[in-house]
Structures are given as structure tokens and as C-alpha cells.
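Handout, page 2. Input:
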Amino acid sequence: MIEFHTAISVIVLIGFVLLLILAGLRVRSQQTIVLYLILYLSLGLLSNLSQLLLAFTGEASWVSVLANFFFLAQVATFGALTLNFLERERNHLISYWTSSGLILVVWLALTVNVGGLGRTNLVPGLSNSLVLAGLIWLVSIATAVVSLASEFKQKQSAKRLNRLRYWLTATALLSVSGLFFFVNPLLFLWTGWPLVLVASILISYVILTYHTRDLSLFVGRILFHLTVGGSIAAILYLSLTATIVVSRSTTNTLIVLIWTIILALLLAILTPFVRQFLHRIFTRIIYGKQYRDEKEVIKYYSQSVSGALDIQRLAEILIRLMVETLDVKQGVVFVNKRGEPNKISLRPVSSIGFNGTSPGQFSIDSPFIDHFRKDSDSIHQYDIDVLPEFKDIRLEERQWLSDTGMEIYVPIMRHRELVGMLAFGPKRKGINYAAEEIYLMRALADQAALAMDSARLFDQLTTTNQEMGSLNEQLAGLDKNKADFLSIASHELRTPLTHIHGYARILGDFSDEELQNPLQVRNIVDGIIKGTERMKQVLDIMFDVSEVHIGEMTLFSGPVNLENVVDHAARLYLTALDDRRIAFGKNGFEDAPIIEADGTRLVQAFENLIGNAVKYTPDGGMITVSCRAIVLDEIGSAVEVIIADNGIGLDPEYH
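Output:
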């Protein structure tokens, strides 16, 4: 008959075989920690095989040494596995392997009594193998505990802390099994190896799984189900006891039947209330908050945002509700700033406990944005740090996400377009977000997408109305300008037309004798020619204005000297300047650079400007044309020309 400890060894052996198979499936990933795990599990497997061989053959000499050697090597490997899991530097691993390997070799040499070394006890009263085995345990467990303690002191994400808790639990289980190993070998076979197997399961789970279940929530739910089950069992036990007491106190079966029916109805009514009551209590204990039904939260948010048409207001309602419901330290709502070409710009619009103000700039093909677009699923900061899916994120994007200090990011999607993003920091108790909480985040994000879409449409409508109002004002201004232009043009055309008409009437009234006088005819013809030239100038200006408005004016660019342009434009008004004693001066043109422009059009423009200055400058006044080189942010190097006079100036309305 197989002994109990042998059956335990068989079960543990099967457990290590299954774990090795699971670890072997990840060998292709070529991760160093997976190779360490395979070594650790293989040593456990070999140690158990040696134990079984010892149980079936009874050979207590070399088989026992082999079993203990493999087990101590497994313990030593655990320390190295911990350092690799915590991503310690290579020199730390080398130092650890050197020290633990040396101790293991010395243990083996003393145990097999190489050269008679095992005859002398290192510690009086204790065997050498026991002392060195204890030293191996001490080095391995101390290395793991010290490394984990330093890791816990650093700022970690909730998911990273959860993995550390699993590892710390495995370390504690191995430590307890070590006590059994040194106190009583038989007790170690019964309880120590099962503890080692459980610790190995936890270690394999952490290494082979990216997303581990929250240990605190897992333990809390186990306690919850045990408490609920125990409470219901106690109620059933009391009910059964009461039924037995009633049945013994009376011989009337009808009374017993009625009592049983009443009791059954009471149990059916009370059991759901007891379960719900206990659920509320444990929710308060585990999550640190009052129980709130997800449907109630979503309904409350929908009612709160039903009349809000401002994105800022929507974001404030959402973030405050989520922070209160989830009991988190930080939360922020980001909105995608549309109109940015080939990039996503996430701008914070409302936050609690978040001090960042700079928007996050992401490329269109960023793995972070691509995950939202494909899966519409949340992303943990831990995922960005460790998952291969996000290894190609640009350094600037990764740094911005890390600087936010957030724990989880939830997309706000509308028709597969990223409208915005919810981001939440760690929970106050440092535990992971439960699946129900993530579901609530996604549900509220969907509600926010609809509300933000409506708010965007409202903003667009408001903007469109404002633009239409602005266009109406511009059209009104254009109508006024058109009327003013027609009034001025008709006035400008009327003067030469009146001259032409007057000279033509005079010419028509001439007698034959007067027509024979060439001097008189020449004067009249010159007046008509002068009037037609003025009309041609006005019409040319009208055509130019028309071409400018429809965008069809043709410019012929070339090198232009500004001083020559001003001189040519002023030549037309030299007689008027002399007649009215108006001084005309130029400044700064000697340093003016040669520019690239249409010289003819520039002369035309300066003729109009100088003519306007002459027209409104009083007699004896002064007109000054100055020039200087400047640099503008919009276009760079430029030349500024100022025509100043001491006339009445422009109406401030047209400044």
C-alpha cells in the first residue's frame, strides 16, 4: 500500500510536470525569466522524482543526497528568479549565483565527505549539511525579501504591486516550507512539498500571465462567499433545529406541516436580503466605499448631462461622479482636438488631482491609439510598460503617459473615432480596478461619447451662427463699400464727362468761321482729350478693383527700386504741389533694398496714395514718404513704406 507521503510526492510531481508544460509553451518568447522558471521547475521535478525513487527502492544513501541537492538548488534558483523578476542588474545576478553556487558546492562536498571534509562539524552540535542547507535557505529567502521590500518602497502601478504581492506570498510559503524542512523531514514531505507546489503555482502564474487577478479582491471574495455560505448554513441549521423541536413538542402533524411551510417561506424571503446585506458590507470592507449599483450610476449620469451642451460641463460631471464612485485619487477627461493633421491631440478639459496641462501628441498609427481604434478597450499603464503590443510606442508618447501618473485609460469612441479619453489614477487602497468597475468606466465612456457628440454639434451650430452673423456683417459692409464705390465712381466719371459734354456743346455751337480758327478748335479738342483720359483712368481703376475681387489680376514680378517708384508716382502731382506750396520729402530710401514686385502696379498704388494725400493736405502743408526694412513673423524680411501728411486724416471707423 502506498504511504501518505508517497501519494503527496506523486501529486506534487504531477503538479510540477503540468507547470513545466505550461512554461515550455512560452519558450519561443525567448524571455530570460521563462528560462529561469523552467530551471526552477525542473529542479523541483527532479527532487520529487528522487523522493519517489527513495520511497520505492529504499536506497537512502546517494538517492537522499540527490533529492536534497536538487531541492536546495531549486531554493537557490528561487533567489535568482526573484532578482530576474525584479529586473535587477546583471552584476547582482552574477554575485548571487557565485555566492549561492559556492555554498551549494561546499554542501555537496561535505555531504558526500569528499576528502574526509565531512568529519569535522562547522558548528558544534549541528551537521555540516544542515548548516549549509540553512545558509542556502537564508541567502535565497533574504535576497528575495530584501529585493521585494525595496521594490515595495518605490512608486508602482497597482498591477505591478499586485504581482509583487503574489511573489511575496510565494516567498512566505517557501519560508514556511523551509521551517518544516529543518524541523521534521517527514512533516516536510506531508506539508512542506504541497506548500512549495502552491508557491511554484503562484510564481508560474505571475511569470506566464500579464494580467493577474487582484490578490486582495480574490481573498476578499473568498471570504465573502465563505461568510455568506456560513450565514445561510447557520440559518438553515437553526430552522431545522426549530422544526425538530416543534415536531417533538406536539403530535399534531398539521401543526408541524404549517410550521414547516411558514419556515420555508421565511427562508425564501430572507435569504436574498441576507445575501445582499452581506454583499454591501463586504463591498465596503474590500473596496472602501459604499455600494452603488452600476445601473444607478449610469442612470444618474444620463440625467445629469441631459441638459448640458458644453463639453467642459459634461467632463466635470463625469469626472466627479467617477472619482466619488471608484474612490480614486486622480481623474481627468481628455478631449481630442480635431483639425490636427496626421496626429491625435488629447487636451485635458476637466480633472481632479491632476496638475498636467500640456496636451498629449500621438501619431495616427501609434499603437496606443490603434488599440483604442481596434478594440475600444481600456489600457492600463502596466500594459504600456510590459506588453509587446506597445513596445513600438514613440518615446515622447510613452513619457507623456508615464508623466500623467494615471493607472488606467478608457477611450471615448464614436463611430470608431477617438472623441476623448478617461484616465484614472491609483485607487486609495492601492488595489486593482475590478472588472465591474472597468465595465462601469466603459459604460460611462459610451454615454459621454453620445453627450460629447451632441455638445460638438451644438458648438458647431453656435460657431456656424456666429460665422453667418460675421458674414452678414461683411456682406453689409461690402454693400456699403459697393454703394460708396459707385457713388465715388459716378462722381469721378461725372466731372470729365461734364467737361467733354461742355466742350462738345461749345464745338457744336461754333460757326463755320469759328471752326476755321485752329487755335480755338485745338483748345476745345485738348479739353475733350483730357476728359477722356481721366475717364479712362477711372475705368481702368474700376476694372482693376473688379479683377482683385474675383482674383484674376495678373502681376508681372521683377526687381524694383522703391525710390524710382515713388518718384514716378509723384511726378503726376508736381504741378499741384507747386501751386499749393505743399512740401514733399522722402526718408530712408537710400538704404532700401531692391524688392521683387510688379513695378507698374506699385506706381499705380502709390499714385493713388500720394494723390489722396495731396487732395486732403491743406495749402502750405507737408507730405513725407518714409521707408525702412523690417522682419515679420509671418513672412520674414519686408519693407515698410509710410506716406504721412498733416491733413484731417482718416475717420477712426476706417482705421
